[in-house]
Amino acid sequence: MSSLHHGHNSPVIVRALGITDYQTTLLAMQHFTANRAIDTVDEIWLTEHPSVYTLGLNRKGVRLPQNNIPLIMVDRGGKITYHGIGQIIIYLLLDLKRRHLNVRQLVSMIESSLIDFLAAHQIQAVAKADAPGVYVQGKKIASLGLRLKNQCCYHGLSLNVEMDLTPFDAIDPCGYQGLTMTQTKDLGITMHQPDIANAILSLIHEKLNACPTTP
Length: 215
What we know:
Order of helices and strands: EEHEEEEEHEEEEH
Number of strands: 11
Strand content: 25-35%
Structural class: alpha+beta
CATH architecture: 2-Layer Sandwich
CATH superfamily: Bira Bifunctional Protein, Domain 2
Shape: globular
Number of helices: 3
């Protein structure tokens, strides 16, 4: 666990959780958010989940996987995605009202942090207005999904680093038929997963710090 705090801005506690069970972590996020007080310090959780499909609130017309990987219904926005070992997951438990942010601004902040990280490795990536996430040459490298409760958010982002991408073939990732996934390893980034996570956390934190906050 580390605490990031600069100047007058709201501090953030970063918790490196290692590999965690998806359902347990989801319940912990819900509990944290439901029990927040006005002065609760924001947290960012870094984790990795064993193989699991998660189906968001937009369930219309979703093609369900026909395999033995568990499928969990979750309360974030978006459709279906896959999590597995070799993927960085960053959960953002933030009081958006205190940070004067709306969800769209936070999504853009996360996407631009990932785009900046990839640009530092000479990889051009883009975000799409109609499909949250980050894309490299039409392939998706990172997914995003958030839930807002009383102007506090939870859930977050997943970045494919060095994983088996095959389970994505059994679904239409985020509802997009024929969408291909990619990962940092396949783009020639040789950094290890913890170093990539730290670099992205620093970029997100830098952008959060640039926001005015209410004490």
